[in-house]
Write a structure and sequence with these properties.
The chain is α+β, with helices and mostly antiparallel strands. Helix content is about 30%, strand content about 25%. The chain has a 5-stranded mixed sheet with strand order 2-1-11-5-6. The radius of gyration is 21 Å and the shape is globular. It starts with a helix and ends in a 5-residue tail after the last helix. The structure holds heme C. The site of heme C has 19 residues, from α9.
């Protein structure tokens, strides 16, 4: 008898379920708070099986379709916005272009179907179990090869805040000067996604790799073909370098590298 009670406790009953509340904003203005587990009949909960990029296997989640939820919060407005910042409980922010939501399916997940706690047994980048409550944004990676190829990009867990934004607002100091070119605009977005985690321009960005714009821009002192080759395949220039290069799955990769270089060039002081 005692044992049966304990088992029940472990399954669900004894801990109050943490509420799956996400706060939505339009830039600095609060718009709504939504408990994604209790959205009512208009926004039905679905069970979705995805290829989970941290456990590296298929996992089933309960969640609500992201685009329908965003429609219910923002109306049409979010579809014309540039980007969504997805902010975790600890403030960790990933900024994803709205176009990704329009082209692929995602869900705001609040539970797993195979275990009671809302957690992941991560295999990468290291073995650890982490809580992913209140909400985890998951994508259609079991069916959508393009999404699956991008690994954990755009899968924030412990998601607590969603904000409509622009890349210029989300990455202050990194936007190219106006008027830009289409190449530098695309290059800016690529740089924020693939490079700014490690590199800074004028001190804005990551600190793992060298600063690339102060006092001189890297395009001023690297010959163009060597710079392109470096971003394409750093090991082909410097054996054992810690720099990873443009990821293999990036669509139209050579063009993407050229666009990043156009962006870097546009950031040169005195241009
Ligand atoms: C995981 C961190 C990391 C990422 C991501 C990264 N880099 Fe690097 N990068 C480095 C490190 C570390 C070095 C120094 C490597 C060395 O000297 O061997 C470096 C060096 C460079 C250099 C040479 C700078 C100089 O003056 O010598 C350039 C240019 C560069 N990276 C551009 C890029 C671009 C563009 C991207 C995005 C496509 C990128 N990096 C992504 C870590 C990174």
């Amino acid at each position: 008898m005692k044992r049966a009670l304990l088992a029940l406790c472990l399954l669900a009953a004894c801990k109050p379920a943490p509420s799956a509340v996400v706060a939505f904003a339009d830039r600095a203005t609060a718009v709504a708070k939504v408990n994604v587990a209790e959205t009512g009949p208009k926004l039905a909960v679905e069970t979705v099986t995805v290829y989970e990029p941290y456990e590296l296997r298929e996992v089933a989640f309960s969640g609500v379709p992201a685009n329908a939820l965003l429609d219910s919060v923002y109306g049409d407005k979010w579809r014309k916005a540039e980007a969504l910042s997805l902010i975790a409980l600890d403030g960790y922010t990933s900024t994803v272009p709205v176009s990704r939501f329009l082209a692929h399916k995602a869900w705001f997940a609040f539970a797993r179907t195979d275990r009671a706690d809302f957690a992941l047994d991560k295999k990468v980048p290291k073995v650890e179990t982490v809580s992913i409550a209140p909400v985890y944004l998951v994508w259609d990676s079991a069916k959508d090869a393009a999404i699956r190829a991008e690994g954990d990009y755009g899968w924030p867990y412990q998601l607590a805040n969603v904000k409509l934004t622009t890349f210029a607002d989300a990455f202050p100091g990194l936007a190219p000067p106006e008027p830009g070119t289409p190449e530098s605009a695309v290059g800016f977005e690529l740089f924020t996604r693939y490079c700014a985690t490690c590199h800074s321009l004028d001190g804005h960005g990551g600190k793992v790799g060298p600063e690339l714009n102060a006092p001189h821009n890297v395009t001023e002192y690297w010959q163009p073909q060597w710079l392109h080759q470096w971003i394409d395949n750093p090991q082909s220039i410097r054996k054992g370098t810690a720099m990873p290069g443009m990821p293999a799955q990036v669509p139209e990769r050579q063009k993407a590298i050229a666009n990043v270089i156009a962006y870097l060039k546009a950031m040169t002081h005195g241009q």
